[in-house]
Design a protein that fits this description.
The complex is a heterodimer of chains A (595) and B (536). Chain A has 595 residues and is mainly beta. Chain A contains 7 helices and 27 strands. The termini of chain A are far apart.
Chain lengths: 595, 536
């Protein structure tokens, strides 16, 4: 089965290399990386809420009114001046490939995918972290050793990576020189890295509310399917008040052809757990693996430690610097004397005027001042009462693979949709026991090299005999029953809390995930906090959640008072506890509680 | 009757031409929530063929208007309405809370199908006359019609469907919707007056979904989600044919007299919104090419309008209905408005970007699209052409409306004749450029460089720019037509922005192995200069 590809592949690589070579003669071709270090929304400097948007976040202290008469390059003059309510945030960038690759199922079966792969943040991605970077990292050329993954030499290696390059930099960046300060994109670096580098899940994306996010999608072609001239797109699933242009539905916008880059632009939407996927022929491209996780952190994370979360959310005073005569709009329970999230119509939530606003002001927490819940931790939402606090992010993607569909998809035949039947049930692209995937754990030898002992990512040997990281994200959850911040749980010693950011990308059927031993607290659904318009939390304490394809929710697992031991997240849909012919595996992972 | 079974009318080429024709029709077709209104309905249950875009005509059973019954159609503004004796789904019954209505059901199904009936789950009282007693309700026989007298004590959206051998009869198509209108106009809702302001024709069935000010709406769409397993339908048709043609005497075997249909394992291949698969569902309501499938699914809206979305599951399966563009606030479930436990003036339903359609359950939600928070001016105003820019003065909610000096759009005979072209613009982003470099008459200075048009593929609903409205599109790209091969679903005069509303169990956006199809509809946000005429 694989022999023909071994013959074909070098020929195809030559063809694609010729394609990119001719493109390079035109100055980098149609691949292009966009990641500005300053924008109208985030110009930096002392007048900005975040003076350094290209390298760090800043504290949130309510919006600041700002006017702008020139763009950051100084090229354009705006008359009348543009006005902004500046809530801080930063600029974040990421680059991904749209192409193909292979992955390894828990029964050892190698499975062909249409897939996205990382073209930036490679070091972070292989360690199970988001690949999203600030411009000061993204804009550096990629270097993490003497060669690219396909053994072609990396020009930025000279016994070590050159200064100004990064293992998390954007592949395709070229080190500027005095003679060539704007060198464009290096198409060969993108092809050397992007061909066959598909991941499941697709590269993890995470950023903060008020960020600008630029996502560079480079279509590197599907080298195993040279008969196809497929475009790929990114659908940011759940983005509220989306533009059609950046929504990724090919019928409603444009889709990037092979050999080009389309850069998506988003001002971060309301905090929550979203996900992303290709929207070309969705039953095919999703089943084949083009599905990724995405979450947006709330600005409440940026409230200075010790400040009242409630006041930060409920504050509705007129922003600093606002023109004379500006009137404050204070919803019920708003705090007039404080500049906070209600001071900006974009971030405020008044159910009296907006039926779809995100985070209503909660019922006022007991206590005043510092006795109210205070900032300094991580939260799932802008809750204003600290109720969605957690310690550990756990993105969990539920998916299913139909091996027959993938096999037909690897051949040059059209796949049939009506008989699609998933046989592999995946958490973060792996079935049990690969979900826990830690060498030395659960009986695996500490010396095994796959998963990689350092990063825990699983690699798969592709048809060119080169092994590439295909599944970087284990889902083993470890919680310390005494490791949480003290006194936040009604007692001195508190356990760590995990935020399970669960999304179901299965294209065929509903999926249930059940927790044995540790109760689930459902705090968010479809990227919105569960709260009625009157400010009452409608959290659900449960032991199982059910999702259809295209749905997400947030569950908190609290280890406070839980006896040390191993617990399980698994599907009670028993036929989903299998890895094709292996009758035990599937949609299951472990939660280890340590003292 | 023809001996042929479930008919395959065509091959692939025929399918493609059907798609092409359908898409042409779809360009101007809209939706609303049409049905028949009153207190006395005379329905028929019978057999007909369901037309599918792969060319199949699937033998089905459905409810329709009994011969001789002349219903009152609503909304009245939709011309050309008809109610055949059999339709899929059945006629949407539009009634009012607290007011009893009667439904007389005549059974015209093939004799071997036996009795049939209607269940009204959620009704406060159901009494009946005629027919004969069945397990779940009174049934209509071949010779005796049954009359149900039904009252819903509260407003909301409900289903009706067969209570006789439901695993077969509902699969065959015997289901429909009931819309129960509130009896009052809540404070703050715009009363029904056939005009929704500015000369726009009013296509609403009522000013609100419930007797509650939080349920006011400006526009409404109703979708019924169901699926079909063609093997079941074929078995029924084959067996009926055998029963009808079996010789009375001299046969080598005994003739069957009743259906014996295997309904499991269930393997549907057709996934329907309002009885049609994409792209048929985006043709007009009452389009003549679907004599038995009068209802479409093709939502349009202006920025900021509150859209009432009524949806229900009518088949075997749940379907995750993904609304691109924004979230939906769930209002109520099976006629029960979801309110806060501590403050009955406030809603408690979730906000969802996927709403599960569940068999036997009907819900409503409120949706809108406003562009709030995009970070760039979607009307393509930039300070570089400030001299010609319309103003954008934020009202208390941040939008440019009559409250802040905008002129409400006006229409004469359906044509925009005046008003602010950027009505309901989100003013915080006014004049903020998207693009780094000037393009056309749109100034630069923004964060983005768009890709070379030569290395992208245009969609059929793409207006040629990231922007909304013909004025913005004209300034951003001039009048040059988009590359050929893109049938214009979104003509220059409209220049809306399109979103997909579809099942996210993506296998279900296929029609019997063909993509695209199934449970998929395009939703368009149109600028106010484009009149949304639901009659087309």
């Amino acid at each position: 089965m694989r022999k023909p590809y071994k013959i074909c592949l070098p020929i195809l690589l030559v063809c694609l290399a010729a394609l990119t070579a001719s493109a390079q003669e035109q100055g980098g071709g149609s691949f292009r990386l966009q990641c500005p270090t300053a924008t109208l929304l985030h110009p930096g400097g002392t007048s900005s809420a975040n003076p350094t948007p290209a390298s760090s976040e800043a504290s949130y202290n309510g919006p600041v009114y700002r006017t702008v008469t020139k763009d950051p390059t100084g090229t354009y003059t705006f008359s009348p001046a543009l006005t902004f309510l500046d809530n801080g945030g930063a600029i974040k960038c990421q680059q991904i490939s749209g192409g193909d690759g292979m992955m390894t199922e828990a029964d050892g079966n190698q499975t062909f995918m249409f897939a996205f792969g990382p073209l930036s943040g490679l070091n972070s991605i292989q360690n199970g972290q988001p690949g999203t970077q600030f411009p000061n990292v993204f804009n550096q050329p990629y270097c993490n050793g003497p060669t690219y993954v396909n053994n072609q030499p990396n020009p930025y290696w000279n016994g070590g990576c050159l200064s100004g390059t990064s293992p998390d930099g954007g592949v395709g960046n070229i080190l500027p020189t005095a003679a060539n300060p704007n060198p464009g994109a290096d198409a060969s670096a993108i092809m050397n890295t992007g061909v066959l580098n598909g991941n499941i899940p697709a590269p993890l994306i995470a950023f903060d509310e008020d960020d600008e996010f630029l996502l560079n999608l480079s279509n590197v072609g599907m080298i195993m399917r040279p008969d196809l001239f497929e475009q790929h797109t990114v659908h940011f699933h759940g983005y509220p008040n989306a533009s059609s242009f950046y929504d990724g539905v090919p019928d409603a916008t444009i889709a990037i052809n092979i050999g080009g880059t389309f850069t998506y632009y988003y001002v971060a939407p309301d905090a929550g757990t979203y996900f992303w996927h290709c929207h070309i022929t969705p039953p095919e491209h999703l089943q084949m693996g083009m599905v990724g996780q995405l979450f947006v952190r709330p600005r409440q994370n940026r409230v200075p430690a010790g400040n009242s979360l409630f006041q930060s959310l409920a504050g509705c005073a007129v922003p600093v610097g606002a023109p004379a005569g500006t009137i404050a709009h204070c919803p019920a329970r708003g705090v007039p004397g404080v500049v906070g999230q209600q001071s900006d119509l974009r971030t405020m939530c008044d159910p009296a005027t907006d039926i779809l606003c995100s985070a209503p002001i909660p019922v006022v927490p007991t206590g005043t001042g510092a006795t109210q819940p205070v900032g300094g931790a991580k939260y799932v939402y802008n809750d204003g009462d600290g109720s969605t606090r957690y310690d550990i992010d756990v993105p969990l993607q539920i998916h299913g693979f139909d091996p027959n569909f993938h096999f037909v998809g690897m051949t040059f035949n059209p796949e049939g949709f009506s008989d699609m039947k998933d046989k592999y049930f995946l958490l973060n692209g792996r079935s049990y026991p690969d979900t826990i995937g830690i060498p030395g754990y659960a009986g695996m030898s500490a010396s095994v090299t796959n998963p990689d002992p350092a990063t825990h990512s699983i690699s798969t040997t592709d048809t060119d005999s080169i092994s590439r990281r295909s599944q970087p994200l284990p889902s083993l959850i470890t919680l310390s029953a005494s490791g949480g911040p003290p006194n936040v749980c009604g007692q001195a010693v508190c356990g760590q809390r995990a935020a399970l950011r669960i999304a179901d990308l299965d294209v065929q059927e509903y999926q249930t995930l059940s927790s044995v031993g540790i109760p689930m607290l459902l705090v968010g659904f479809n990227a919105k906090i569960l709260r009625d318009q009157a400010g009452n939390n409608l959290y659900v304490k449960t032991n199982s959640i059910t999702l259809g394809g295209g749905e997400s929710l947030d569950v908190i697992l609290d280890s406070t008072g839980i006896a040390p031991g191993t617990y399980f997240l698994y599907t009670p849909q028993l036929d989903h506890l299998s890895n094709d012919a292996e009758n035990f595996g599937g949609l299951m992972t472990e939660v280890v509680v340590i003292p | 009757m023809s001996l042929s079974n479930t008919k395959n009318w065509c091959a692939v080429s025929r399918f493609l031409s059907v798609v092409a024709v359908s898409l042409l029709l779809a360009a101007s077709a809209h939706a609303a929530a049409p049905g028949i209104k009153g207190t006395s309905f005379s329905l028929n249950a019978g057999a007909a063929y369901s037309s599918q875009p792969d060319g199949m005509a699937v033998y089905s059973w459905g409810y329709g208007c009994a011969t001789g019954f002349s219903p009152t159609f609503a909304p009245a503004a939709i011309a050309g309405a008809f109610c055949p004796t059999v339709q899929f789904p059945g006629p949407t019954l539009i009634v009012t809370e607290g007011i009893p209505f009667t439904v007389t059901l005549t059974n015209s199904l093939p004799a071997a199908a036996g009795n049939t009936s209607i269940l009204f789950p959620g009704a406060s009282t159901v009494t009946f006359a005629g027919g004969m007693a069945g397990l779940l309700t009174q049934e209509s026989t071949q010779t005796s019609a049954v009359t149900y007298t039904v009252t819903y004590s509260a407003p909301g959206t409900h289903e009706y469907y067969s209570g006789t051998q439901p695993d077969l009869q509902i699969e065959m198509g015997l289901f429909g919707a009931v819309v129960v209108l509130p009896s009052t106009v809540p404070t703050g809702c715009v009363a029904l007056n056939n005009e929704l302001g500015g000369g726009r024709v009013d296509f609403r069935l009522a000013p609100s979904a419930y007797d509650h000010p939080k349920s006011c709406y400006d526009r409404e769409y109703l979708t019924q989600w169901s699926e079909m397993d063609p093997k079941i339908h074929k078995q029924v048709e084959d067996q009926l044919e055998l029963i009808a043609s079996c010789p009375a005497a001299g046969a080598q075997f005994s003739c069957p007299t009743a259906l014996n249909v295997v309904t499991e394992p269930y393997h549907p291949n057709y996934f329907l919104i309002n009885g049609r698969s994409m792209p048929d569902n985006m043709d007009a309501n009452y389009a003549p090419n679907y004599p038995n499938q009068p209802y479409n699914g093709n939502p349009h809206m202006h920025p900021g309008e509150l859209i009432l979305v009524r949806y229900m599951g009518q088949g075997h399966w749940q379907h995750p209905f993904h609304e691109h563009g924004n979230h939906v606030r769930i209002l109520g479930r099976d006629g029960n408005l979801l309110l806060s436990q501590t403050d009955a003036t406030q809603l408690a339903g979730r906000m969802e970007f996927n709403t599960d359609t569940t068999p036997g359950q009907a819900d409503e939600g409120i949706f809108y699209w406003s562009g709030k928070g995009l970070g760039w001016d979607i009307f393509a105003h930039t300070a570089a052409n400030g001299a010609t820019n319309p103003p954008c003065v934020p009202d208390a909610n941040g939008y440019y409306t009559t409250a802040s000096g905008a002129t409400f759009p006006t229409y004469t005979a359906g044509v925009f004749t005046g008003g602010s072209p950027n009505y309901y613009e989100w003013c915080a982003d006014h004049n903020h450029p998207l693009e780094a470099n000037p393009i056309g008459q749109v100034g630069g200075g923004g964060p983005m460089t768009l890709p070379d048009p030569l290395i992208v593929t245009n969609g059929q609903w793409y207006n040629g720019t990231p922007y909304l409205g013909p004025d913005a599109v004209l300034r951003a790209r001039g009048t040059a037509p988009l590359p050929p091969g893109s049938p214009l679903q979104n003509p220059p005069a409209e220049s809306g922005i399109a979103f997909m509303w579809h099942s996210h169990n993506e296998r279900e956006i296929t029609t019997n192995d063909v993509f695209p199809g199934g449970m998929l509809q395009m939703m368009l946000v149109d600028p106010y200069v484009w009149n949304i005429d639901e009659t087309l």
